[in-house]
Amino acid sequence: MSEVLLSLDTTLLQWMLAWSQPLWLTKLFITLSTPGVNPAIWIMVALLVGIRRPALRMGSWQVVLAVLVTVLVVDGVIKPLVARDRPAQRNLSIQATVLTPDSHSFPSGHAASAAAGAYTLSRLLPRARIALWFVAILVGWSRLALGVHYPLDVIGGILVGLCCSAFVLGGTVWYSRDPSKRIPTGPR
Question: Which of 79, 104, 110, 123 is an active site residue?
Fold first, then answer.
């Protein structure tokens, strides 16, 4: 069963890499995939929210913690445990557009931190959730379009990011100190 799934994963990636994309999109994907840029995006937005809106400062620190925990779980626990090779290392017909990282492939750390950042910031800034998730989807898609991850790596990364951020948040609700300005963050 796992061989069939891995074969399907490779076939899907090869199909996606066969699509042509404009140069500006490739440049955007390379920027989003630069090491350290992706977690920094979410952390910087959270810190800016905390600075500009002091009532949300505790929530912004939870965003930072969720992204950092996600990165630690992905890079320190899951990647070494699974030890899946990158697409270009495993299949010579797959060419990565950028330099392939030395780390293992599963799960995608970029997709994981993007999901953690988008999820936690969406709770903090509900009106911005569509834009936040759009950026997170672009980050995940960039990993596929550049040929450095399989689709299951990205899906796994998203699930890990959601789980880590839900763990960090632990059902917390962010409140303003002023009871008249409380911010509901639960499901709607």
Answer: 110
